[in-house]
Prior knowledge:
Layout (H helix, E strand, L loop, with lengths): L3 H27 L37 H9 L28 E4 L11 E3 L2 E3 L2 E3 L2 E4 L5 E3 L4 E9 L3 E8 L4 E7 L1 E2 L6 E2 L4 E4 L10 E8 L2 E3 L5 E2 L4 E2 L3 E4 L6 H6 L3 E3 L6 H8 L3 H8 L12 E3 L2
Antiparallel strand pairs: 1-17, 2-5, 3-4, 5-13, 6-12, 7-8, 7-11, 8-9, 9-13, 10-12, 13-14, 15-16, 18-19
Amino acid sequence: MLSRGIKTFILTAILILPLVTRASSERRSSSNIPIDVPVYKLKFPALPSLADHHLFKLQLPREIPEILDFIRMTEFDDMPEEYDIWSDTKVNPYQVDLKDMADTVKIDLSGFSHPGSRHITSDFGFRKWRFHYGIDLKVDKGDTVSAAFDGVVRITKRARDYGYYVVLRHFNGLETLYAHLSRILVNPGDTVKSGATVGLGGSTGRSTGNHLHFETRYLGNPINPNNLVNFSDYTVHNNILQLTAKHFEYKKEIAKIRYWTIRRGDTLGRIAQRTGVSISKLCSLNGIKRTTILRIGRRLRYT
């Protein structure tokens, strides 16, 4: 609650303030005293033209050279979207069949290094009753096994068939596999240079002697390494591989293969009669003799 004195003061101020303000205004308007306000003019130096300054002049040569390296890197380093899949357990996690591919893929092979500088002991293709998806190179136990191209280690593992093996994904789009190693010297995720040691030669897994099983793959589909490399002198046929459906025509032949699973009471004569294939051809396709004991559950190729 406001006291009576404060209320009186506030009321007086409200009544008097307009009168004081009006008198002050009239006094200013009636005054004839001139007021001189000084005016200062500032002079700035002229700025130089930006076009005349050396920092803004483009020093261009008379001819602009083509940027060939940039074009090459753009063309070769565009990875297919399937490589978004990264598996450290499956050799082929992509599930892409390239036997009917419509496009041509250019792959840069210029940085190739030989994985093992010995002769071929077993080639790519059909081998008895199964298909051999790589080549075998002669190595001794402990021999150095090298990365074929720059890349990243995707798999280091031991399997029943491959033994100790390594899979590398390369920056040119290929993947390579090195199997039957006696020792692995890299880890998944390691970046390796072409020619770097990834393991040591051996005979682990399904192997009858020391050798290196070497595969080249694109999106999980094996490519005959002989289509890339001349293994007589370990040089690439061309720095650029034009990859087309022709490189995967062998898969159409594999699709034609049929197998007969041996059951109780089966003989070569009975299987030949049921499949329409002669006994001699059955023996040839499967690397067996007429006297070979047929074990129940074994598969015999008949086409």
